[in-house]
Amino acid sequence: MARITLTVDGEQVTDDVEPRTLLVHYLREHLGKTGTVIGCDTSNCGACTVHLDGRSVKSCNVLAVQADGHEVTTIEGLARGGELHPVQEAFRECHGLQCGFCTPGMIMQSIDLLAENPSPTEDEVRHGLEGNLCRCTGYHNIVRSVLHAAGGAQ
Amino acid sequence: MTVTEERGAAAAGEKAEIGRARRRKEDQRLITGRTRWTDNLVLPGMLHLAMVRSPFAHARIASIDTDAARSAPNVVGVFTAADLAELQGVLINAWPITPDQKAPTHTPIATERATFAGEVVAVVAARSAAAARDAAELVDVDYEELPAALDLKEAAADTVLAHPDLGTNKSAYWVFDSAQAGTGGDVEEAIAAARADGIVIEREYRQQRLIPAFMEPRSVLCDPTGEQLTLWTSTQVPHIVRFALAATTGMPESKIRVVAPDVGGGFGGKLQTTPEEWITVAVARHLGRPAKYTETRSESLVAGHHGRDQWQTLTLAATKDGRVTGLKVELLADLGSHVSLVGGGVPVLGAFMFNAIYKFPAYHFAVQTVLTNKTWTDAYRGAGRPEATFAIERLMDELATELGVDPLEVRERNWITHEEFPFTSVCGLEYDSGNYEAATAKAREMFGYDELRAEQARRREAGDPVQLGIGVSTFTEMCGLAPSRVLGSLDYGAGGWEHASVRMLPTGTVEVVVGVSPHGQGHETAFSQIVADRLGVPFEAVEILHGDTQVSPRGLDTYGSRSLVVGGEAVVKAADKVVEKARVVAAHLLEASADDLEFRDGRFTVRGTDQGMALTEVASAVFAAHDMPEGVEPSLDSDATYDPENFSFPHGTHLCAMEVDTETGAVKMRKYVACDDVGNIINPLIVEGQVHGGLVQGIAQALWEEAVHDDAGTLVSGSFVDYLLPTAADTISFDVDHTTSPATSNSLGTKGVGEAGTIASTPAVVNAVVDAVRHLGVNDVRMPCTPERVWRAIQDARAAQEPTEPAAMPHFDADEPGRSSTEGAGA
Questions:
Q1: Any bridge partners for residue B423, and if so which?
Q2: SS3 state of residue B555
Q3: Interface contact B297-A122, CB threshold 8 A
Q4: Most exposed among B11, B98, B259, B400, judged by the fewest C-beta atoms under 10 Å?
């Protein structure tokens, strides 16, 4: 077992974990952060995307011990004081989700994309979300959501 | 956006909710991660299960050594079929399509033989998921490999038997013939006449095997604690699961509660009663402890049911001027290793749709369902109808080529005109409403059809290496499953009704219970809009409950684009009953005759006076029950069970422009227009979302997806690395709009929309790809149209046009080295 201390959604946590524990399993099973979900086993789908020190990572691709001493933000840590994050709001406004399973990862990746490129073109949004799979929306309204959040389009 | 023309009786002008692009009620929890997926649930003492799966497509299970696994850390039990015996129950086929259908007994855990690579042969229960998976690796199964029936055509010839004890792979042969049914003429006569003096188009098309690939892997949690057994499961069909569990395990139905909590997509893939559900129940009951199983994605792709997988042999007869006279359809359909829940019924659902929107005087359909040693197939978005639409829309393009006319023109010569509705098809179905001319005209304008045709001509003339193709799909489909009498006539094991309850709560809100069970469709929003209009209450005052057999005891769940057109109609009828019950009480309280009361905007008013009271006031008065009319019970609660009188027939015109690089075979979508007619629209935002998602699933069949097996029967496209789901970078934004022909078969005038995009888009894309290279001699590219296949089709066509080479049919590439009917270049 390895002892790790990190900040998750603004709260400091300390736990003993098996060294092989993936960050996503740590979040879900140890912390009950079930807003972050697992959609595949090959790091293709991006459903488990969270922020590690402000940058998006697929949490199935990071060991919990690698997050030791770092700051993790999940979908559950975005809304502050009951106020939705603008990207969350944009997904609702533009119907950027249906079943909602890919949505946490999509939103976390979209925030990272916009942090890097605040005024992306449609093409840049599409390429920026290439690592996140959705089976419901055909991506049409997800792309609109991100552009809407960027203030660039409806 | 189209605004509805006909609204509920209680709806009024600007207050109407129906037709508004309401943002979804469901979204708050989904965008904040406060979700309840089955795998999120944890119970005290809960065990985790891991499945041991056969690596062989067909093998005798000689022995299973579980000793090492049993003694692994934190393992509580390891079970084989023999260990669980009768406790594991059996999986049912609800639709034996013929009385003599052959269906092997389907136990959740394989007994003597493993019949596909991925079938469960043992299960491990442990204190953690990781411990269960580690121990599953230690189960030592001694297999004696058997010859496997893999190729569909070879299996149909009984070359190798998937189930030797059955003596054949042929499960059922199902026929519809318009001459026999008295709904049309004799197709052989029509074909003979066309051969003598007309046009005959003969083609063989392949519907490749697909994987539904919902984003949430299936998960199931069973709690046998206490008096009742509770099963949380990621399913589209909680009511069917409860019925089948009771019917096959001997547990009383009233002791079983099935809950579908948040469910992350289904697309037909969760319209199933699964081995994993049955096994989880059996282990939990056996150990007397809660048990959970969540599949990995790799397990999901190999063990969740697959879809499509047909060979289609098609003969279309027409007159010399391009009027269709007959259509003959002969299908081989791969069932996989068992006849699953709907199984052979999937091709039958397509049987009535090959004739599509066209006035065929004669029609013959036959399907041979075939058992193989592959994952079983069942419903996948569209279920039978995408296959039918693909075939006919490809054939209409071939007919247009034969005639040398525009593909839209040949369709117009043959389609049902808007004056001809209601129209009885050659299959005997009554299409209630539609306007193919209007949808086509609008799509044509949105697309800029003439300009793109002109560009295509310019590029051809210039010999541009990147050619432009335009694909057409003027589809219809039958959905809103389904009138029970029709299901009965087709030997389906259940009805097609739906149930709803509407309860007026004393605080002025409305609680609605529905039998349909959503997994992304937005039922909570759309049904709230309907009830708000019907009862004249605020949208926010309506709560929709669903997906739990204890809360919603009656229902037949969600599939076949039935939730709105069948479930929504049940909601309307229950709401109307509430109004009628309230009318009696309101009349009493207002000291008026019930006949003199008008109900509008949520208020009863006495005609010709200013007296009145709100429905919510009546509800409060009924709750208090201080002053009820004589003999009237103090409740406004109402139930309705609605059995649809007809199917729903959405239609539309889809136009697709594809660019094809003739040097590399690479294809690129340039533009896609969908003009659908889904009748009146409750929520345009949700309808558009359904169309977008449906389109991409259909486009993905055309361009990317295929379940590929190797020669040993191993699924090689068994992960998201190899099974090519499209990404945002592969797709484009779509131009979507609507025309409106209200359905006459339900009071809201709505038609189903869940499957329409998927049904329509596949042939539009393939028609466009073929159209881009047809001048090079190509008349088909097998799906998925990968760059390699497109490039080969071009090369083969060029080779065929060399004067020294004999004429070839580039379509018939089944004998191509290194390929069987079930495999290909992948993607």
A1: B431
A2: coil
A3: no
A4: B98
Q: Measured between alpha carbons, how far is B31 from A96 in angstroms, rounded to an integer?
A: 10
Given an 8 Å threshold on Cβ–Cβ distance, is A99 in contact with B214? yes
Q: What CATH number does the domain located at B432-479+647-801 have?
A: 3.30.365.10
Tell me the one-letter amino acid at B738.
H
B522 vs A98: CB contact, 8 Å cut-off? yes
Q: Which DSSP state fits B709?
A: B
pLDDT value, residue B803: 67
Residue B296: both structure tokens together: 């990995």
In the predicted model, what is the mean pLDDT of residues B555-584? 97
- Check if B13-35+497-642 and B432-479+647-801 are the same fold: yes
Strand boundaries in B767-818, DSSP class E: none
For testing contact with chain B, the best of A136, A145, A147 (most B CBs within 10 A):
A136
CA distance B42 to chain A (A): 9
A101 CA: distance to closest CA in chain B (Å): 5
Model confidence pLDDT, tens digit, residues B612-632: 999 999 999 999 999 999 999
* d(CA B234, nearest CA chain A) in Å: 12
Task: Tell me phi and psi for residue B420, to 5 degrees.
Answer: -90, 0
Angle of helix B385-403 relative to helix B756-773, nearest 10 degrees, comes to 30
Closest CA to B304 of B207, B382, B237, B214: B214
H or E element, residue B486: helix B484-489
Q: How far apart are CA B598 and CA B606, in angstroms?
A: 6
Which among B134, B215, B519, B725 is the top mutation candidate for probing chain A, defined by the most A β-carbons within 10 Å of its own β-carbon? Answer: B215
Contacts of A102 in chain B (CB under 8 A): 215
Beta strands, E only, B510-619: 510-514, 542-545, 597-600, 603-606, 612-614
* Nearest chain B residue (CA) to A29: B40
**Which strand (E) or helix (H) includes residue A56?**
strand A55-58
Q: Which of B219, B190, B270 is nearest to B35 (CA)?
A: B219
- In the predicted model, residues of chain A with pLDDT beneath 50 are 153-154
A&B contacts, CB < 8 Å: 172
B-chain residue closest to A107, CA distance: B31
Using a CB-CB distance cutoff of 8 angstroms, which residues of chain A are in contact with residue B298? Answer: 41-42
Tokens at B682, concatenated? 């409750």
Q: What's the predicted TM-score (pTM) here?
A: 0.95
In angstroms, the CA B391 to CA B485 distance is 28
Look up the CATH architecture of domain B13-35+497-642: 2-Layer Sandwich (3.30)
Does B216 sit within 8 Å of A75, measured CB to CB? no
List, in sequence order, every residue forming a beta bridge with B310; answer none if it has no partner.
Answer: B207, B333
Q: List the domain boundaries for chain B.
A: 13-35+497-642, 432-479+647-801
Comparing alpha-carbon positions, the chain B residue that sits nearest to A92 is B27
Q: Which residues of A touch B296 (CB under 8 A)?
A: 41
In chain A, domain spans: 2-76, 86-150
Q: Which of B26, B31, B558 to mutate to test the interface with A (most CBs of A within 10 A)?
A: B31
What is the spatial distance between Cα B574 and Cα B554, in angstroms, rounded to a whole number?
14
For the sheet containing B256-259, what is the strand order?
B75-80, B120-126, B47-53, B291-294, B219-223, B229-233, B256-259
List, for residues B291-333, the tens digit of each pLDDT value: 999 999 999 999 999 999 999 999 999 999 999 999 999 999 9
Name every residue whose Cβ is closer than 8 Å to that of residue B803 and which is 6 or more positions away in sequence: none
**Element housing B597 (H / E):** strand B597-600
Question: What residues contact B720, with CB distance under 8 A and at least 6 apart?
Answer: A40, A42, A44, A45, A133, B297, B301
ipTM entry: 0.98
**Residue contact A37–B216, C-beta within 8 A:** yes
Q: 59-78 in A: which are within 8 Å (CB) of B?
A: 74-76, 78
CATH fold of the domain at A86-150: DNA polymerase; domain 1 (1.10.150)
Chain A contacts of B757, Cβ < 8 Å? 138
